[in-house]
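pinned: reference chain
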Amino acid sequence: MQDDRLIYLYHKAVNNSISEKEREELFVLLADPAARQLYNSLFEWSAGQTDGQEDIFTEPQANALLERINKVNQSRSANIFKLKATWVAAASVTLLLGLAAYYLLTRTVPAKPAGEIAQAIPQPAAKTHVMLTLSDGRQVPLDSAATEQIIEQKGTQAVNSGKGALTYTAPENHTAVTEVVFNTLTTPRGKYYKIVLPDGTRVSLNAASSLRYPTVFSDSQRKVELTGEAYFDVATDAGHPFIVVTGKQTVSVLGTAFNVKAYADEPYTKTTLVEGRIKVDPRNGTAAKVLSPGEQATLENNQLKISKTDTREDISWMQDMFYFSDTDLHTVAHQLQRWYDIEVDYSSLPNARLYGQLPRSTPLPQLLNAIEKTSDIKLKMSNNRVLTAH
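pinned: its structure tokens
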């Protein structure tokens, strides 16, 4: 099918593995007038959200594509736009990339102003606040602070920047802290937050997750407890191992960067190593495994499996992106449920796998439409619930 060929060719273009002959074939597909009718509102709304990435097409190639399109449509556009890899990352499931190129290059279809579109289409929702729970039970909403906010307790201090980050500072004299207390940072559906722990370790906490940690680390180890998903950039301290405890496993490191996904509503725990070395201990009698960069440990049904992985998919949420690389539809649905604060009828979903990438700011109706166009899977919303349409 022509759509399948377009998906394949654009996937190669994104990964800079396309030949000149294949690029010529891609030009032909992009010049198809049928592409004009699709996704005008989404492209107008999302074009230009990101800048500065390497071009997929050089300027001569973009000009050649524009000339081909103009011959098909018997019209000329006054402006030439280059399709960039950022646009690839920011505006599409893979098929949409081709349509985006067509739309950006021709600019012949009028569209509503971006502001009107953004207001008219439902956005990712978060009904509750990012919440910091202190040791005495008090709760401090962090994402509602308009200015810098200082939180003091038991001789320690944390600063909420008011810009999506909470930073702890270690006291100059640890012995002056007479009592080690624990805080818990919790994110709702539709939001994520960043935190700098007392040792300088940086943690990004994904939607519908929580992290429990001491306000001062002990002299023997640095241990935190995670529910949900987080990316850790651990401050190096050879004398004090950093330990992440989830419901089913323990991850031990000295200084490294990795992602842990341990949601209660999914049957597995996935640990992905970006750099450094970590040890994953299932705590079920199975031997612990040491990971190398680019490897992923999956703990499911008490079995620990190590495999090579595309780390971009596992940490794409940190760039506020959805990234699907042969991803199971049920896994995709879990991501949508947590980000858009919806429910999913999993029993109605077919066994299917998806490719593509687009920003998490994409309105849900447009995202579901994109999935349909690239996979022939038709999903619909009914009473805040996503299910397969028949």
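why pinned: The longest strand covers residues 222-233. The CA atoms of residues 55 and 84 lie 4 Å apart.
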